[in-house]
Amino acid sequence: xxxxxxxxxxxxxxxxxxxxxxxxxxxxxxxxxxxxxxxxxxxxxxxxxxxxxxxxxxxxxxxxxxxxxxxxxxxxxxxxxxxxxxxxxxxxxxxxxxxxxxxxxxxxxxxxxxxxxxxxxxxxxxxxxxxxxxxxxxxxxxxxxxxxxxxxxxxxxxxxxxxxxxxxxxxxxxxxxxxxxxxxxxxxxxxxxxxxxxxxxxxxxxxxxxxxxxxxxxxxxxxxxxxxxxxxxxxxxxxxxxxxxxxxxxxxxxxxxxxxxxxx
Length: 264
Fold this sequence. Notes:
The protein has 264 residues and is of the alpha+beta class.
């Protein structure tokens, strides 16, 4: 691991100031992806700006018909939150199924979204609910946020501060996990709510994506039965030592049916 300067700001303004003008600074949230990359020599930032003690970035609150989750809120806090369990229980299932206890205790919502791992769980929930990502500068709709493999719409030095989830009438989440890493070989989040009917898939491509054909079928009839016989093309999907593109294509409608049945 290379030498770096460590900054521990107390406010968002201080965090942005510590980041500005540095050669290759990185915001440090839970560190579950960044720190292993640094240990392997895959990332060598000049500065780390620790967000753990920044005021106002953590917490969960219900704001009208929106559930607001702070960017540095750990996965475990979302999984254990009574407010989340009442308002959007599918989000609690997402959080509770991430990694192991150590990862859930340290990993954060904002860190996961900014990293945009192609097999991460949170991007599917955010896209599947039509959430809004709040930063220090603007509000970014989920449909515009995830742009490619480990790429997002965030500009250099832009900081995720919170995510606003609209309260869906129905929402379900099912993933077929890689047993060692617990990342999704395929994960499907399906919902019906203020943002319409949405089906978001993670683990199957270079980036989380929606499936319009499944959404159209569920818009006509919200039921697992409506997806009987549905197929997804393997074109453009990922193939690796864990699963072929064809197998992932087969799993998507299967898991979507289970997510809809779970949602009720």
